[in-house]
Design goal:
alpha/beta, Bovine Mitochondrial F1-ATPase, ATP Synthase Beta Chain, Chain D, domain3, 21 strands, Rossmann fold, proton-transporting ATP synthase activity, rotational mechanism, eight-stranded mixed β-sheet, elongated
Length: about 475
């Protein structure tokens, strides 16, 4: 029997409080009917005896303490799902906003996800090709991994997200069982339009499910958006055997909504005002990535988060780093030089990379090339530091070679533009051409047999002869 409760005890921001409520549970869906017949929905977020706090998804504007009717449905919020969701656009609470009508559901799924036995997880193998050399070669995205992008205000992370959606593909087959779920939280109208327009113009929208929560939408919807997106991803992965890449932007907007919601509940704040349960809340999102035993599909995550003041020790990137398997860090100095994507190589890391590349996945020399590029670029930073003290003219010949390597590495390898899509073999060949600029004895991270097979100084000099002069000229003009 379903009971209805007339009146409210309290209204506080996005929350309403009811007294003398029995037999309800956390996350239970509530239907709230206003005096004029308008129905809003909410969920139970706190229970204190018979006192229940309900979070209203659409906000509490227009609600009355006396004339509001509440009905508890006895179930959590569920998302209607079918394979028709591919190519559709939804708001943060999973309602269609593309004018194409409702979804005729094959299945209803709890947006909080299904209980997952950790023993049933399979170790992620194989990679997802993004077409971006700095990611594919040096911080490879492994299928089933959660690999966040750490960025800063004003950096081109939106452009990078769109490029990944347009170019990403799985390594084998023609990609028919690969799709992207894209969730944007707290974005402005022009940014949301940019996402939709870019994907439609690229002709990839039919393989994308998009959830858009705008900055003027209720903050509660911002908390629901990633959960709806991940529920859609799990449905496609485990019900239809698809490999799903989930891109969540911006986790910082999500966390700030969580902080605002926590403050409205009167909870004691933790670091920088964020709730003490921020770690476990982020875990409830990130840990929904992976590969499950006996399932043919997989869920891979790329959460994008803006670091306030470029501070990587801020609670959001700090906690995210504990939960996820690495990070891709965008570098502001590279961005100011006009390099796109401005991936900071040295602080970036993919912890699962070693087991998803190499012979049988990419190419047997991949690991060696990545390690050597890391090592050489680290020496470039040392040479630049020395040059800032004694001047570039006073450097040794070897240090000058490293300086030239650094210019070409940033100008040719990292910098590839938004419309360049490189496959993994092209990326590895470019890496070898860069390494072949340096003396063979300097490449001490590569096995001699592999080095003999791929090292080609003559081809390297021929490839970069014109490009080298143009880059030096551009850098000189920038200096003036």
């Amino acid at each position: 029997m379903s009971l209805q409760y007339l009146g409210l005890s309290e209204i506080n921001g996005p929350l309403i409080v009811l007294d003398n409520v029995k037999d309800v549970g956390y996350e239970e869906l509530v239907e709230i009917t206003m005096k004029d017949g308008t129905v809003k929905t909410g969920r139970v977020v706190q229970i204190d005896g018979q006192r229940v706090v309900v979070q209203v998804f659409e906000g509490t504007n227009g609600l009355s303490l006396k004339n509001t009717t509440s009905r508890f449905t006895g179930k959590p919020m569920e998302l209607p799902l079918s394979k028709e969701i591919l190519g559709r656009v939804f708001n943060g609470s999973g309602k269609p906003i593309d004018g194409l009508g409702k979804i005729f559901a094959d299945k209803m799924m709890d947006i909080n996800g299904l209980p997952l036995n950790p023993v049933s997880r399979i170790y992620p193998r194989n990679y997802i090709n993004t077409g971006i050399s700095s990611i594919d070669a040096l911080t490879t995205l492994i299928r089933g991994q959660k690999l966040p992008i750490f960025t800063g205000s004003g950096m081109p992370h939106n452009e990078l997200a769109v490029q990944i959606v347009k170019q990403a593909k799985i390594s084998e087959g023609d990609g028919k069982n690969f799709a992207v779920v894209f969730a944007a939280m707290g974005v402005k109208n022009d940014v949301a339009d940019y996402f939709k327009r870019s994907l439609e113009e690229a002709g990839v929208m039919e393989n994308v499910v998009m959830f858009l929560n705008l900055s003027n939408d209720p903050i509660i919807e911002r908390i629901l958006a990633p959960r709806c997106a991940l529920t859609a991803a799990e449905y496609l992965a485990y019900e239809h055997d698809m490999h799903i890449l989930v891109i969540l932007t911006d986790i910082t907007s999500y966390s700030e909504a969580l902080r605002e919601f926590s403050n409205s509940k009167g909870e004691i704040p933790g670091r920088k005002g964020y709730p003490g349960y921020l770690y476990s809340d982020l875990s409830s999102l990130y840990e929904r990535a992976g590969i499950i035993e006996n399932a043919k599909g997989s869920v891979t995550q790329i959460p994008i988060l803006t670091m306030p003041n470029d501070d990587i020790t801020h609670p959001i990137p700090d906690l995210t780093g504990y939960i996820t398997e690495g990070q891709i860090v965008l570098d502001r100095d590279l961005n100011q030089l006009g390099i796109y994507p401005p991936v900071g190589v040295l602080p970036s890391l993919s912890r699962l990379m070693k087991d998803g590349i190499g012979d049988g996945y990419t190419r047997k020399d991949h690991s060696s090339v990545a390690n050597q590029l890391f090592a050489c670029y680290a020496k470039v930073q040392d040479a630049r530091s020395l040059a800032s003290v004694i001047g570039e003219d006073e450097l040794s010949d070897l240090d000058k070679q490293y300086m030239e390597f650094g210019k070409l590495f940033e100008g040719q390898f990292l910098n590839q533009g938004m419309n360049t899509n490189r496959d993994i073999l092209e990326t590895l060949e470019l890496g070898w051409d860069l390494l072949s600029m340096l003396p063979k004895q300097e490449l001490d991270r590569i096995d001699s047999e592999v080095l003999d097979q791929y090292y080609n100084r003559e081809r390297s000099m021929k490839r970069f002869k014109i490009a080298e002069r143009s880059i030096i000229r551009e850098l000189a003009m920038d200096g003036e």
